[in-house]
């Protein structure tokens, strides 16, 4: 506490500023008593007043985040999986409130792409209460449904339609709890039996409309997936750009080219300093681009996923990037 001198020469004690933090937590994935004890034992947390807001099956985080901001929180800690983080960020972006992460899910995609510590509550809380702020981009999506209604959402990592969306909707939640990200492999085997391609039209920025038959089209604000898969090697969370990958193999040879491109070139070669200067594999089975806006229209309804969560069927979407719209807490070091 700092002392100040009044006009008459007397010493007056300055009232310390109270910092307010809010924890928006998924009660299914978080042990509340253990988390409260961990917060109480975190250095730096004593300078904050901490409020607690649970999510629910009907509200994955948007409502609690709004309540937290209305209560004066200057920082919101999202304690849950990717769905909780995405829902909270949807409200926090552009508000001036900082988002801190306490990873508690299977994928923890944003935490992975920010190189934050996983499965270490003490370190995550230390980062929240004593870290520094970093501004990152947010992707905004308008999803058009079959009845012509439009949903508006935000996402932080990736959105997509095609194989990836089908995998998310076919992944067993109970199996995810037991096997983690390996549960997606079982869903992938099931989905790969479906030979149906998406027929769509897409437009990048102000370019021409492109018509294609694809297995998947994925838009990323970040590039990394679980299992150390680097899907979008040029993606950066703060470059003001979206990265797009269109997967469109026409044969077994095309699928081999896709695997070589993603697993070998992106996942191994591009991770090295020397490899980043190597000429890229040229294949018609994969199209990778960067943009600020992407518009997609399907010829029939298809599934869509946001940050690993299924979001139902749609007939198209429009995605734009909001540069630096979200402030996140990262380690001071």
TrEMBL record:
The keyword Transferase applies. GO terms for biological process: phospholipid biosynthetic process. Its cofactor is Mg(2+). The keyword Amino-acid biosynthesis does not apply. Keywords: ATP-binding, Kinase, Lipid biosynthesis, Lipid metabolism, Nucleotide-binding, Phospholipid biosynthesis, Phospholipid metabolism, Transferase. Pfam families: DAGK_cat, YegS_C. Residues 65-145 form the DAGKc domain. Signal peptide: none annotated. InterPro entries: ATP-NAD_kinase_N, Diacylglycerol_kinase_cat_dom, Lipid_Phosphate_FormReg, NAD/diacylglycerol_kinase_sf, YegS/DAGK_C. One of its GO terms (cellular component) is plasma membrane. SUPFAM superfamilies: NAD kinase/diacylglycerol kinase-like. It comes from the Bacteria. GO terms for molecular function: ATP binding; kinase activity. Belongs to the diacylglycerol/lipid kinase family. This is Diacylglycerol kinase family enzyme.
């Amino acid at each position: 506490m700092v002392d100040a001198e009044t006009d008459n020469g007397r010493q007056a004690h300055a009232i310390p500023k109270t910092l307010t933090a809010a924890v928006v937590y998924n009660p299914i994935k978080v042990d509340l008593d253990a988390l409260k004890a961990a917060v109480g034992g975190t250095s730096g947390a004593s300078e904050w007043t901490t409020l607690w807001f649970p999510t629910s099956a009907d509200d994955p985080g948007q409502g609690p985040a709004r309540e937290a901001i209305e209560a004066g929180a200057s920082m919101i800690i999202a304690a849950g999986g990717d769905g909780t983080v995405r829902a909270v960020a949807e409200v926090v972006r552009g508000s001036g409130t900082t988002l801190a992460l306490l990873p508690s899910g299977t994928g923890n995609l944003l935490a992975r792409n920010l190189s934050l510590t996983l499965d270490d509550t003490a370190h995550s809380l230390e980062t929240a209460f004593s870290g520094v702020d970093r501004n990152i981009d947010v992707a905004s999506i308008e999803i058009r449904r079959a009845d012509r209604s439009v949903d508006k959402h935000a996402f932080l990592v990736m959105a997509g339609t095609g194989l990836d969306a089908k995998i998310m909707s076919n992944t067993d939640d109970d199996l995810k709890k037991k096997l983690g990200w390996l549960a997606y492999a079982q869903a992938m085997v099931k989905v790969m039996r479906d030979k149906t391609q998406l027929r769509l039209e897409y437009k990048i920025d102000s370019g021409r409309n492109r018509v294609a038959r694809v297995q998947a089209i994925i838009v990323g604000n970040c590039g990394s997936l679980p299992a150390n898969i680097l899907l979008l090697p040029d993606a950066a969370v703060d470059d003001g750009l979206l990265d797009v990958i269109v997967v469109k193999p026409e044969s077994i040879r095309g699928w081999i080219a896709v695997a070589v491109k993603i697993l070998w070139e992106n996942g191994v070669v591009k991770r090295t300093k020397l490899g980043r200067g190597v000429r890229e594999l040229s294949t018609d089975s994969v199209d990778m681009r960067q943009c600020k806006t992407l518009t997609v229209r399907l010829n029939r309804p298809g599934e869509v996923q946001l940050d690993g969560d299924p979001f139902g069927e749609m007939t198209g979407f429009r995605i734009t990037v909001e540069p630096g719209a979200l402030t996140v807490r990262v380690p001071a070091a």
